C-alpha cells in the first residue's frame, strides 16, 4: 500500500472556471513531461476528474475536485514513491497553480 497525497490549491475563479483552465492546460503539461510520463488518462465528469498516470514505471491514480475556492488534488503514490510525498505535494501545488493562471477565454 502506498501513500495518498492531497493538496488544496486555492483560487478565486469559481469551480467552473478553474475546471476549464485546468482542462485546457493539461495537454501542455503532458507534452512538457512526455519523456517522464508514458501514460496519462483523465476522465472528466462535471467538476471531478479521475487521473491515471504512469511515471517512471510507476502507476499512480488520483482525482481532482473543483470547488468554488480551491482545486483538491489527491494522488496515491506507490510505496516506492511514498518517500517523496512532500516533494510531490509541492510539485502538484505548483503545476495546478500554473494551470489556474491561464488566461480567461476571449470574449468574441
Within the CATH hierarchy, at the fold level, what is the topology? Answer: Alpha-D-Glucose-1,6-Bisphosphate, Chain A, domain 4
Q: What are the segments in which pLDDT stays under 50 over at least 5 consecutive residues?
A: none
Termini separation comes to 50 Å
Q: Secondary-structure element order, as H and E?
A: EHEEEEHH
Q: Give the oligomeric state.
A: single chain
Based on CA atoms alone, the radius of gyration comes out at: 14 Å
Strand content: 35-45%
Main sheet specs: 5 strands, antiparallel
Largest sheet, spatial ordering of strands: 1-5-4-3-2
The percent of residues in helical segments reads 25-40%
CATH superfamily: START domain
What's the CATH architecture name?
2-Layer Sandwich
What is the number of domains? Answer: 1
Give the tally of β-strands: 5
By DSSP (H or I, 4+ residues per run), the number of helices equals 3
Shape: globular
Q: Specify the CATH class.
A: Alpha Beta
Could you say which structural class the secondary elements and strand pairing correspond to?
A: alpha+beta
Q: Residue-averaged pLDDT, rounded?
A: 84
Amino acid at each position: 500500500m502506498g501513500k495518498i497525497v492531497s493538496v488544496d490549491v486555492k483560487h478565486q475563479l469559481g469551480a467552473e472556471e478553474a475546471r476549464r483552465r485546468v482542462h485546457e492546460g493539461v495537454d501542455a503539461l503532458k507534452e512538457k513531461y512526455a519523456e517522464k510520463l508514458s501514460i496519462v488518462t483523465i476522465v472528466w465528469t462535471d467538476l471531478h476528474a479521475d487521473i491515471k498516470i504512469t511515471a517512471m514505471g510507476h502507476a499512480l491514480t488520483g482525482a481532482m475536485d473543483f470547488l468554488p475556492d480551491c482545486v483538491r488534488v489527491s494522488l496515491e503514490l506507490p510505496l516506492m514513491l511514498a518517500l517523496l510525498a512532500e516533494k510531490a505535494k509541492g510539485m502538484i501545488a505548483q503545476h495546478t497553480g500554473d494551470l489556474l493562471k491561464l488566461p480567461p477565454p476571449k470574449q468574441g
